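Dear Dr. V.,

Thank you for agreeing to look over these. As mentioned in my earlier message, I'm a first-year student in the group and I'm still getting used to reading structure tokens, so any feedback on how I've presented them would be very welcome. I ran two proteins. I've put each sequence directly above its structure. The first is here:
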Amino acid sequence: WLTLFIRDRSLNSAGPAAPLTEPVINDISADRGWQTTGILLDSGMTIQFQYLSGEIRDGETILRGPSGSGYICGDSTCCEPMPEVQRAALIGRVKDHLLVIADKNTIEVQESGELQLRINDCDEGLFDNSGSLKVKISP
């Protein structure tokens, strides 16, 4: 028999980061900035993302899923971490390298370090956000 263990980091995100050797489930809050996942990644590694559930509210806009609102600021003076990506889309970073996740299923990591996630919204705009997205991250 083969048993698959999935670590659920949404229940216990405290503790040291560890290499991604098995699927991990994370809840990403819409009203917080960069959130640690507890996952250490190596440069060149390919990881899988799967949206499991949840919805977020960005102001008056309700979003079901990690794709974003459809609005793109697109200007270098915009305050979103990734102004060229849809607002409220799921994004990530490893050290200083930013990752567009949104509805992509596969991401190749460019830098080694701990994975952090958030929605693409201005830090000063997080106050009117609510809800969370549950995602599974797999090697």
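The second protein is here, in the same arrangement:
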Amino acid sequence: MNEVSEYLRKSGVQYFATVGTDGKPKVRPFSFMLEEGGKLFFCTSNRKPVFSEMSSQPNVEVCCMGENSSWLRLRGKAVFVKDLGLKEKIQNASPTVKGIYKTPDNPVFEAFYISDAEAVISDFSGNPPRTIRL
């Protein structure tokens, strides 16, 4: 878990893929928020299409680049949480998120983690990819 959360943290920007409500893939930049209790957390607004997409089809995939032209793909299911303490930790971890949502109890602020997660780290070395089950 630490290796994956550190990889996400160092990458800065991840590309987050969902199945759109039209059945077509959708990809957008996202930011990893934090690892808590063995779970990898992200957040969004419930007014965005990505929230509707994850609510109707929770299978997601995240991809980002790392050092030495390596990359990580993380797949699993989005699970939304209502825990205000966790939402506060996310806001404290990201001044941008805190600036947007102001308080953990903002009704549009949604936090989620990736359950049944599997991370695959690959590179151009010719070595096989490494799979990490979370």
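From my reading of the second output: The beta strands are 14-19, 25-30, 34-36, 39-45, 59-65, 71-81, 109-122, 130-133. The chain has a mean pLDDT of 96. Does that match how you would interpret it?

Kind regards,
E.
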